[in-house]
Amino acid sequence: MNTIAAKSMNALTRVVVGTTLAFFALAANAIPIGAPGTEGQKVIVSGTDHVIATYQGNTASYSNDLRLNGNFIFNNHTTPVGASVDLGSFAIGTELIFELFVNNTGYSYFTGPDSRNPDGHAHARVQANWQPGETLVSFEDLFNGPFEFNDLSFSFTNTTSGPTDVPEPNPLLLMLVGIGLIGVTVRYRRA
Fold it and tell me: Are strands 159-162 and 95-96 parallel, antiparallel or unpaired?
């Protein structure tokens, strides 16, 4: 092999090795984020064992505290990734409403429907069975988004996700549909 070909091969090898190492370094620092389409889901207790919360990481600039019923669980800048907290046991079917308090802005955002949040948007993704027996929750900490859900991620044992509230049917609409059906029935009988 001539020297030019050998130098080109060495340069190519360095690029491939460097790119591969950079990829694995990036992947090692990547945090899990709940799947798209799980925004606004509720966290529901699925068993009688204790609920264990595990901090999974963040990429946020702002300092955020995770709370349950006003009680501090994690801070996204001071809690080590992998730290766990035993939240205790709850009745099956209980909804756990988690709060993300943004220390820099004073805003609080909650799991569940968008109506719980000051900007009217869902600020958490709740993905059931992210890992066997674990639910992943990923929060967004900015008012009106950009909704990347990478500002605080944590997982729970003994929970699942549930749908947001189904809106009540409009009584006026139901009455109009009923009157319309009566009209169709009367007209059908006359014919």
Answer: unpaired
